[in-house]
């Protein structure tokens, strides 16, 4: 009867619980009866009832926003592999993308309070985090992981950390060796799934999310290339300094964890060949190198010294803050007439000031040592460059035969030039001589032709001027006639002055 009830629940589209979940029913959920659509109609969900992971997926993933599609994603859609292959693959890809994005956002459950961005830990915590109020656990989540593992999207962390071959080689993803026990176990799982319904038991993890690792690596390399490098020390980091410098390349609020860092460094070393790692030291590849040079003892010492300088500087900042606080507290106590408290604050200030002076001097010494070590490393780099340049010049000088070889070549060139000039003179002497008188006669003819041409042009200009003369003469005669006429008219006009008129009036008056 128990077997029959589980079979009926599977036929109704309700995912059956795994044997491990039946042993502890209170740890999971109590699924309401009915199909997914019936449960959705009776029990409408609210975002406040969702887990953090489900709420993130519902908010950021387009495929999970439609309620009908959400019911399909949580249901047993394995039968679509035969009836609707495209829909089956679409559901698998939707779940895979949602898990990748959720891991990058730091909302997947991890070990304790740690949220990894590059690693997915499978287990009951992940199943409970994906539990929906209305649709329960995702029924085909195991198939999603199996498909992602098969395609190389999710890689077991153990294989990722131990493999020496780059993941981009075709030989990376191989089918695991199956023993007789494995075959029997697979057959049992298949039979149990067909009889009891699909199992929610997830593959044993953890798994590395390859897409997130590649995105983080690409961002780190871009930031490193964009940053100006003026010293050899700019290429060297300790692991804590590397994590502090590049920890927020994927998420500004949640940096990558120490586990994520180990996975990421393996990818940068093995697959990208962008840096070298030795214990606690990370060294980027130089621009002139085809492969990153191994980490040396000097590199490790430089990274440790840089960390020591940073720690001392952080300690100095805390001590400065403590000195300021105790000084303010002492002043406040004096104002309140609390002499005992004021003396205690002053003692604390003296102790903090003494420690501050000590760490300040220590920090100056460490910083000076780091600068000297950095200068020595830069000197080594410059000497190596000068040595390489000297070797290149020696090779080129050897190709030309040195100074003696160049002198021989120049002597040969001068000799051949003299021979060429001698041959040219001989050829010129053997040619027919030129008659200079003929050249003079031809030159005289050219001068004569040019002179005749100029005379013709001057004659034509003179003829044009003469043709214009009659018209000019006639115009001048007309102007003279007009001038004479105006003069005669002016001579006939009599102008009388006022004095003459007054004299004439006085004579006409009677005595």
From TrEMBL:
Residues 302-329, 439-469 form a coiled coil. Residues 1-37 are annotated as: Disordered. GO terms for biological process: late endosome to vacuole transport via multivesicular body sorting pathway; vesicle budding from membrane. Signal peptide: none annotated. Residues 24-36 have a biased composition (Basic residues). Residues 9-23 have a biased composition (Polar residues). Keywords: Coiled coil. GO terms for cellular component: cytoplasmic side of plasma membrane; ESCRT III complex; multivesicular body. PANTHER family: CHARGED MULTIVESICULAR BODY PROTEIN, SORTING PROTEIN SNF7 FAMILY PROTEIN, PUTATIVE (AFU_ORTHOLOGUE AFUA_2G16692)-RELATED. This is SNF7 family protein. It comes from Didymosphaeria variabile.
